[in-house]
What we know:
The protein is α/β, with parallel strands linked by helices.
Amino acid sequence: xxxxxxxxxxxxxxxxxxxxxxxxxxxxxxxxxxxxxxxxxxxxxxxxxxxxxxxxxxxxxxxxxxxxxxxxxxxxxxxxxxxxxxxxxxxxxxxxxxxxxxxxxxxxxxxxxxxxxxxxxxxxxxxxxxxxxxxxxxxxxxxxxxxxxxxxxxxxxxxxxxxxxxxxxxxxxxxxxxxxxxxxxxxxxxxxxxxxxxxxxxxxxxxxxxxxxxxxxxxxxxxxxxxxxxxxxxxxxxxxxxxxxxxxxxxxxxxxxxxxxxxxxxxxxxxxxxxxxxxxxxxxxxxxxxxxxxxxxxxxxxxxxxxxxxxxxxxxxxxxxxxxxxxxxxxxxxxxxxxxxxxxxxxxxxxxxxxxxxxxxxx
Length: 363
């Protein structure tokens, strides 16, 4: 480390908080994290000697190379930290100083036999769409407003059920990191950087959850992954868990990943983003992995998204529904002549009678 880097690391050892180091030194928080991360990463002495010989002091500029001696030439590659874990750590640090909100006031009268689900699939926060190409402009700010407007209308029209579920069904974010590509390498139309997208996502989802808490006595929040936000969804989930950690009426599921499963009386509610398996296989997996819940229930519902258009079918005793997206079309969808409408819903279930009402809001 350079003397300046050593100074930063020593200050972190004293203060114990990276954001506090950034505040005291006036440095960018990301640069502070990078310096501390380098200081805590072990580098083989042979590689360190080679760096010194070449006059290279910053290991972050180095990812691979050759070590040559009189008897051998060795190729090395430095490991990189997992993106998802780094993102989660950044959100935890950002939320450290945020106070948990007090309990939200709710309606006095609730029907204990009812549960309302607000499925939020394919918002694609961070996507950019130009009106001339797609027929409708879209960016991070528009997406956030669209989500809050839609959930407000759904909540206002839904019955006063005791239980509410905010079900984020994947692709809440359009991009996973600042490479702005999908897992397969497809380049995405992106409006802003991933950290700004995550901040907008947290703000919009916070508004949705707290609106639901004014309507329902208990609110469950489940955030599952999509193919666009396969790692970044964790950052949103951690942010929500931190904000509501002291609110007894709002529970954020911490173990949600690919699947959402819930038993409510005779109802079995399930969800998956829909990108990894077709409907028939999802139903067979549901029966295989949760046989006890399957056996206790009579009304079974499975929600998916991913393909952005509506489709419903009955498979083996399960109503499988592919939901419309919150997002409008992107340039690829418009050029491919896709014309699916954007929509949000509030779906209410009775413990003994299954689905009893449904509110649909066009966006």
